[in-house]
Specification:
Blueprint (H helix, E strand, L loop, with lengths): L1 E5 L3 H13 L2 E5 L3 H7 L11 H10 L3 E4 L2 H7 L2 E4 L15 H13 L4 E5 L7 H12 L5 E5 L9 H6 L4 E4 L3 H10 L10 E4 L1 H32 L3 H9 L20 H14 L5 H24 L8 E5 L15 H10 L3 E5 L4 H7 L5 E2 L3 H5 L4 E4 L11 H7 L4 E4 L6 H6 L3 E3 L22
Parallel strand pairs: 1-2, 1-4, 2-3, 4-5, 5-6, 7-8, 9-10, 9-12, 10-11, 12-13, 13-14
Length: about 450
């Protein structure tokens, strides 16, 4: 079976490479000639752990190819995945489907023989029907079916998410297309992966509903963290106690500076607009979006408060600028709110990120000074601010830090460390939901013991 994937961005590249790893012959198509040239030279345009090795492996075995020739690739394919971007339309929040519909037009012009066309992009309810209408109008006699197969990939662990997914959701209303999709995902049968077959609309909405729920979960625990700081509770203990309830689960209950990335911000907005288009509301999602925006803004105040209420003339070392670890993605990262606000308040920023410097230079103010080593960034700084929880920040050398910093102050917006242990090293330590409102208690954090 031959597969064509239109769009060689994050979703398309991971999807195509993983299907090639399953043993299928895959061609990834993109109209960006520079990107395709780089991919054919094993130069990966994104950072995703393990992806470079898998791309090289399948290129070498002839199962994976990259091209700009969409017509030829579609003509030869049994299955065509649409994996183009669906960003928020500027100034409103609706998903921009122009790339999806453009891909549908190009597919229609090239179809030969029966083809299954799969929307992998995150799209609002009704998009699959529209894709089908576009192709049918252009090619009334063509043999094809349109299927929805939303992706559930987490940046930083996308390969594992594809190869060992929690579930696969497929919106297919034709037996022939369903049989093709079953064959595509047959390699997952040994894992007994649940495959949910449903309608186009249900599959499309499942993706948005999933991301909106996880976004709401993050916004909720962040608000509980604020309450913890005021009443003396420990957010990590609260989250542990909540997460052990199987109805709730422990994932996405880590308090922090707010969610970001390529999915949650745009998908929550798109879901709100979709609901509005259908004459209803998702007020809980609306509240989560508002809460998350306020969360990012409040982190600046937290940092300033930890620095004595004024950062004018002070130098802050920022560790981590990407929206999460194990990715170079800066889209809607909390750092994009926090760092400019700190600069506006008068702070000088010295920054380090293992993978985010290239994007950071483009997206953060030019005043930010970048370093290739976290300790170099700390030299003569008044405080260290951890924004992204990269693993290499989990075992920092506190003795070396004390020699480099003007004062031993750490502001940990990801709760990487145990407060009492950092304080025993002679540091003032400020974290999320684990200290009084002023942030400088030296009392030990509450101990949580789980007895099974």
């Amino acid at each position: 079976m031959k597969i064509t994937v239109i769009g060689s961005g994050y979703v398309g590249l991971v999807t195509g490479t993983c299907f090639a790893e399953f043993g299928f012959y895959v061609t990834c198509v993109d109209n960006n000639q520079q990107k395709i040239a780089q991919l054919n030279q094993d130069i990966i345009p994104i950072y995703e752990p393990g992806l470079d090795v898998m791309v090289a492996h399948n290129l070498a075995r002839g199962r994976l190819a990259f091209t700009t020739a969409i017509q030829e690739s579609v003509r030869e394919a049994d299955v065509v995945f649409i994996a183009v971007g669906t960003p928020s339309r500027r100034g409103e929040g609706h998903a921009d489907l122009s790339y999806v519909y453009s891909a549908a037009e190009e597919i229609a012009a090239a179809l030969e023989g029966y083809t299954v066309i799969v929307t992998k992009s995150t799209v609002p309810v009704g998009t699959g029907r529209k894709v089908k209408q576009i192709i049918r109008q252009k090619r009334p006699q063509a043999e094809f079916d349109v299927v929805s197969n939303p992706e559930f990939l987490r940046e930083g662990s996308a390969i594992e998410d594809f190869m060992k997914p929690d579930r696969v959701v497929i919106g297919s209303e034709a037996e022939r297309a369903t049989a093709v999709m079953q064959e595509l995902y047959r390699p997952l049968s040994s894992l007994e992966t649940p495959i949910v077959f449903t309608t186009l609309e249900t599959a499309e909405l499942t993706k948005y509903a999933s991301n909106a729920f996880l976004s709401t979960k993050i916004a909720f625990i962040n608000e509980i963290a604020d309450l913890c700081e005021r009443c003396g509770a420990d957010i990590q203990g609260v989250a542990k106690g909540m997460g052990l309830d199987k109805r709730i689960g422990e994932r996405f209950l880590n308090a922090g500076p707010g969610y970001g990335g390529s999915c949650f911000p745009k998908d929550t907005l798109a879901l709100m607009h979709t609901a509005n288009d259908y004459g209803t509301r998702v007020s809980i999602v609306d509240a989560a979006v508002t809460s998350n925006k306020a969360r990012k803004q409040s982190m600046t105040k937290k940092v300033i408060g930890a620095c004595g209420g004024d950062v004018r003339g002070k130098t802050l070392c920022v560790l981590g600028v990407t929206f999460k670890p194990d990715t170079d993605d800066m889209r809607d990262a909390p750092s994009l709110d926090i760092v400019p606000s700190l600069i506006k308040a008068g702070a000088k920023i010295r920054a380090f990120d293992p993978q985010g410097q290239k994007e950071g230079r483009d997206m953060l103010p030019p005043e930010v000074e970048w370093f290739e080593d976290p300790y170099m960034a700390m030299k003569e700084a008044d405080a260290v601010v951890i924004i992204t929880e990269w693993n290499e920040f989990r075992a920092l050398d506190f003795n070396q830090m004390k020699l480099l910093l003007k004062k031993p102050l750490m502001i940990d917006l990801r709760n990487i460390y145990v407060p009492s242990q950092v304080q025993e090293k002679g540091f003032d330590y400020v974290s999320i939901g684990r200290s009084p409102a002023h942030g400088f208690s030296r009392s030990k954090a509450p101990i949580l013991r789980v007895v099974s």
